[in-house]
Amino acid sequence: MTAPVRQAATVLLLRDGAAGLEVYLLRRTQGMPFAGGMSAYPGGGVDERDGGTDLAWVGPPPADWAAAFGCDERLARELVCAAVRETFEEAGVLLAGPADGSGVVPDVSGDDWEEQRQALLARDLSLAELLAGRGLALRADLLRPFAHWITPPPERRRYDTKFFAALLPAGQEARDVSGEADEAVWTTPAAALQEHAAGSRPMLPPTIHTLGQLAPFPDAATALTGSPPAPLEPISPTFEQTPEGHYAVLPDGTRIRMVVPLPS
């Protein structure tokens, strides 16, 4: 029987470092039921309260995101909210600011913020409630649509994942606050891909491929300039095993070598 597909959002959090464009990666703990030991971006499944309309919103409306991802407006709203919520939950970075769009909240590292981050994780607090309580708006304008991947049918856990890109807000720091990770690093896409090729940083095909898409950009501003064609073409790979190793094969024929075999 084919596993149900869960909607999810993930965020390529970017900054400029000494060696150029850097991206934030979390290594999921070995005991995780999905992608244990793999490096990935902050992200996760859509929560039922992510679609609430009672929150202030700055930036492209849900209709624009629906066009980018080829979905309806309700799901588009849920995905944007999930992207912002998951980035705060897993990296301690909040893409929010005053409702007039005049800036981004500069620091979310205090004890009061941590208490609310934990409440989000426990689902005792929704993103809309957190923002309303602080007089803040979700900053959809800080996100960019980047990619769309769907786990293929043979897998036991399947996700329809929309990938966003965002610049680390000035004054905020990504922090290793996720209980689901045992490592959090800023790295250049090229360095992460080299580690993967050497076998020291296992990653799933969407992470490998999107790092390859980022690698040519010299800085974060260039990576975030413009938008890909709308709607983004969803990618659902197939897998093959050869004497040379395990590969994910994309619809366009691109083959991505896997460091370890995918779970059967």
UniProtKB/TrEMBL annotation:
Residues 4-209 form the Nudix hydrolase domain. Keywords: Hydrolase, Magnesium, Manganese, Metal-binding. Its cofactor is Mg(2+); Mn(2+). It comes from the Bacteria. GO terms for molecular function: hydrolase activity, acting on acid anhydrides, in phosphorus-containing anhydrides; metal ion binding. InterPro entries: NUDIX_hydrolase-like_dom_sf, NUDIX_hydrolase_dom, NUDT19. This is 8-oxo-dGTP pyrophosphatase MutT (NUDIX family). It comes from Modestobacter versicolor.
